From TrEMBL:
Presence of the UniProt keyword Amino-acid biosynthesis in the record: no
Alphabetically ordered keywords of this record: Membrane, Transcription, Transcription regulation, Transmembrane, Transmembrane helix
Protein name in UniProt: Zf-HC2 domain-containing protein
Signal peptide residues on this chain, from the entry's feature table: none
Pfam family for this entry, one: zf-HC2
Length: 215
């Protein structure tokens, strides 16, 4: 018998299903094969589990009996229910995420339309760039709504709140595909009173607009 075939006999030997001659040949091989000895040790726990399963099987019941059609139908139904529940959860998360994305511009417009919310205007801007901003105090710092347009894409832009001491908070980051108007909502950890200005920048640090308080 070739060594490869002897290696494959580990499981059969562990379960005691080899014939007398095959058992003798495998034990000769096992004496000099560390790989098979290690596999045989690992299979010891499997053998113990199978023996326990055989002991627990009620008398007169075949431990490897073919499942009835009813059992198969029930098992397949349970699996189907679990998959459908998983799909429903995934769909719910997608719907919630879409609602947040779709609602963000309306929330920003609502904030910017509130006359009680302090507004900021661009005092310096790159050619063609326009920007207005509303900043309201919030428990977390500052609630910010931004409307910006005229940025030439493709580009990645960032709105940064600059504190009176020079510290910076990133309020929002977005991608620009063309020069279309973009409306968004973000937040800063700095309180409105601690913010000196807002800056719209590109990813490489180029300043597109500087916004200061109106009036």
């Amino acid at each position: 018998m070739r060594p490869l075939e002897l290696h494959r006999d580990v499981g059969a030997y562990a379960l005691g299903v080899l014939g007398v001659a095959e058992t003798f040949r495998f034990e000769e091989h096992l004496a000099g094969c560390a790989h098979c000895a290690r596999l045989l040790e690992e299979l010891g726990s499997v053998e113990a589990l199978l023996a326990a399963y055989a002991r627990w099987t009620p008398p007169g019941v075949d431990p490897v009996a073919t499942p009835s059609p009813g059992l198969l139908h029930s098992a397949l139904g349970a699996v189907g229910d679990r998959l459908r529940a998983r799909r429903r959860r995934r769909l719910g998360l997608l719907v919630a995420a879409a609602a947040l994305v779709a609602g963000a511009p309306f929330a920003a417009l609502e904030l910017m339309a509130d006359p009680a919310t302090p507004h900021w205007t661009a005092t310096a801007a790159a050619p063609g760039v326009t920007a207005t901003l509303a900043a309201a105090p919030a428990g977390f710092g500052t609630d910010v709504g931004l409307d910006v347009g005229g940025v030439r894409g493709p580009a990645v832009c960032t709105l940064v709140a600059v504190g009176r001491g020079g510290e910076e908070d990133t309020v929002a980051t977005w991608a620009v595909r063309d020069a279309a108007q973009v409306t968004m909502r973000g937040a800063a950890a700095l309180a409105p009173a601690d913010i000196s200005r807002f800056e719209v920048r590109t990813r490489d640090g180029a300043r597109l607009a500087t916004l200061t308080r109106s009036g």
